[in-house]
Design goal:
Layout: H1 3-7, H2 13-23, E1 28-30, H3 32-45, E2 50-55, H4 67-78, E3 82-87, H5 109-123, E4 132-136, H6 138-153, H7 158-161, H8 165-172, H9 179-195, E5 199-203, H10 207-219, E6 226-230, H11 256-264, H12 270-278, H13 283-294, H14 299-314, H15 317-331, E7 341-344, E8 349-350, H16 351-357, H17 364-372, E9 376-378, E10 381-382, E11 389-390, E12 393-399, E13 403-409
Parallel strand pairs: 2-3, 2-5, 3-4, 5-6, 7-13
Antiparallel strand pairs: 1-6, 8-11, 9-10, 9-12, 12-13
Helix pairs in contact: 2-3, 6-9, 9-10, 11-14, 11-15, 12-14, 14-15, 16-17
Amino acid sequence: MNQSAVTTTPVSDGVRQALEISLRGVQELLPQDEWVKKLARSEATGQPLRIKLGLDPTAPDIHIGHTVVLNKMRQLQDLGHQVIFLIGDFTSLIGDPSGRNSTRPPLTPEQIKVNAETYYKQASMVLDPAKTEIRYNSEWSEPLGASGMIQLASRYTVARMMERDDFHKRFTTGQSIAVHEFLYPLMQGYDSVALKSDLELGGTDQKFNLLMGRHLQQEYGQEPQCVLTMPLLVGLDGVDKMSKSKNNYIGIAEDANTMFAKVLSISDTLMWDWFTLLSFKSLAEIAALKAEVEGGRNPKDAKVMLAKEITTRFHSAAAADAAEQDFINRSKGGVPDEIPEVSLSGAPLGIGALLKQANLAPSTSEANRLIDGGGVRVEGSVVSDKGLKLAAGTYVVQVGKRKFARVTLA
């Protein structure tokens, strides 16, 4: 359909509702008027829009911070649009320089294959797998060959590339930029050409790459995609974006009890951002709940609702109920019903070595730090002596609020 036909399509209540869902929790939707036209055309023709999310499988697991953009995909999927889960097996060989002050080492094809399988399996806990198109960008990137890559590179200038924030900073501070890093945004943009994308989603750190897709689609004579960026979810610490390296994350493959307890550990203020970005409740429901809390209702009630919703999504309603009861038991000083059983030898064994061997602390030095902080209990009693040696026997050992093990020492 030509552009003039798109602009004359009337905006219905259905389109307004779809726009409201599209805008929920987003950082930017660019250009919004073009997205409204696309929605109106889709409604008029019955033709679903093609909505793309590309993820490079750089690690085997994803955390709930990654699900912010997946939730948005699911909302658009539920409106009847075609979502495309694009696995960047080719672009992972280059390494995404976004937000980095150094060249990222590319992954091996073997690492990419293993990670990609886990990524999609975990993403399917949010998306409807029966209605999700799975693609790998090696499908069209590898056949390009050297001549195709040169032709693609001719469609963008070095000056425009150097406007990108991370490249500009690295150049002005004298840090190296490898030529192959310029290929990454080009290849991500070319994905949108290959898939004829109507909308591409990503985090705020991906804006340059997403806009590259618009530029290249125009270069190849296509109607340009719209771009939707989602905020980066703040982690458990309430300060930094959720990240494994910051240890402020909730992995979506974590057990239900840990997941539930971690959600309850966030601040009352952060909770409302999490509701907007992670909950499937309507904005009206969230606003009503917030008004109740501001009117005197215990904020913990709302946080329990959020914890149960998230735990149910990745486990089950029964697991969420059990996790809530487990949390209540722990808060009363009780021991959870199910804790790891560990058998160790070497009695009498020092407490630091025991914590390390039982996987309750990553190292003996970290174990000693936990003891200094009063975070270690044996049979319910706080351990204050780092020189403590335990004789043969069975002990319930607790580290912090959530780590337990029943250790049998011989």
